[in-house]
Amino acid sequence: MTRHLVEKADSLNGYFQPNSDKDYLKLAVVERHHLTGSIGLGIIKGLGITRGGIASTVAHDSHNIVAAGTSDEDLLAAIKHTAAMKGGLAVVQDGKILAELPLPIAGLMSDRDSSFIYGRLSELNHALRTVGCSMEFNPFLTLSFLALPVIPELKLTDRGLFSVSSFSHINAES
Fold first, then answer.
1. Is the pTM here over 0.90, yes or no?
2. For residue 68, which phi and psi values (nearest 5 degrees)?
3. CA dist 77 to 4, 13, 32, 46, 83, Å?
4. Between the CA of residue 10 and those of 22, 27, 148, what are the distances in Å?
């Protein structure tokens, strides 16, 4: 469940600035199937990352890349790395990949054995703690539902912010 909040956020020259003290991060959904170049941008509160960024292609229902981060650089690094893997999960800090799980089959499944997957999941969990996640919930699981525009209340698609109650995209002033 998400809520549509209107709060004052930090900006510089009219552009949103992430603030990990207030738990405001950049959120992006990048279309990855048809080379449309569509990218939805938003703000997420409550993910709990204090530094770095994460990205995933396990993002219901379209399985585009969904990513969140504390800086443009880490957000972009996570997105690019996930795209280069042809799908999967990635954790980035200071432009460096801390952990990854390639999911080359539709961006959802691995072609590797269970011991490889288990090891990578352990590395991802360690990396999530490194970037400040409390691990009270799984941020990758949370990301997977932030781009699903059929469950309440506000979601982000590659075409922008989506209101589930009106079942339409909304502008930034709403």
1. yes
2. -135, 145
3. 28, 23, 16, 22, 10
4. 10, 15, 27
